[in-house]
User: Fold this.
Amino acid sequence: MEEPLLLEAPRSRGARARARATARSAAFRLVAFYALLLLFGLASFLWSAIGAALVHVLPRRLGEPLGLGVIRSGFRAFFAAAEATGVLRLHLAALDALPRGEPVVIAPNHPSLLDAAFVLSRVPGVICAAKSPLWNNLLLGGAVRLAGFVRNDSPTRLVRDAIRQLRSGRCFLIFPEGTRSSAWPVGPVKGGFALIAQRAGVSVQTVLIETNSRFLGKGWPLFKRPQLPLVYRVSLGPRFAAAGDIAEFVDRVRHCYRRELGAGGGDAER
Assistant:
């Protein structure tokens, strides 16, 4: 009667060992997650303070490339550390195929606050539309101003400054939803991105961002802990010529997002 117990014991010990290893791995990822957030906050604050000083010293032709270069390098380093510690699993290689030296409006869907960082970390020299509160943000304000981001505090200013950047040969990053997705996988699409592209005479490159979590999405509580690892997959969608009626063009882009991303999205962590 004792022999079956002796046969089961090694399997039980192995299962317990695997469970302990899984628990240790989860605990390590959780510690790494908060440590990386702290490090990101400190580094952002330091560079924001430096950037706020440099913006008054350096001419735009020197300050903007420096600001964009530091932002790109900083995000790449952060993502590399997050992947190495198992906090993130990123699939961003598709962004390397975005045009270099050709002005285009880059138009991703917007599931989380990390979306702009994905593009900025992979595409050199891209200019981003940013909401006006960021200009006075302690963590980001100086960096945003030095990099020459376009301030989105009025439609007229946004369109004018975005067109200026595109006509200078740069790519322009803007989220057609105007804010993080209020519905899943994509919320209502606004027309500003289409108007900018049409008046600047450039095309619109859609970018599709998929994730397993709604972490840092619309309505996500600030201190809610997500399930780790967080997985993000970025791919390039169709490229559109911004011609014809604006409303019809916006409708085509909205249908593109829903078709490519799927109308469901229920598997993402809530």
